[in-house]
Write a structure and sequence with these properties.
alpha+beta; 4-stranded antiparallel sheet; 4 strands
């Protein structure tokens, strides 16, 4: 099985339990599922998730070189 197919399958089966809303480096608010790790955009004014984050949140932060 391809890894993308398996990942999509697991995403559709996940019951999604979300963390508290967080703010990203560029002022983007988001929530992350603590079970599968998928990030969703979050609107603070309406207090609702608005859609899935296209780029992973981790990539917006520079990684430290060891």
């Amino acid at each position: 099985m391809s890894s993308k197919f398996f990942q999509r399958l697991m995403e559709s089966l996940c019951p999604h339990q979300f963390s508290w809303p967080r703010s990203g480096a560029h002022g983007q608010d988001y929530q992350v599922c603590v079970l599968c790790g998928i990030a969703y955009e979050y609107d603070v004014l309406t207090m609702r998730r608005t859609g899935r984050v296209i780029t992973p949140v981790e990539e917006s932060f520079p990684r430290k070189q060891a």
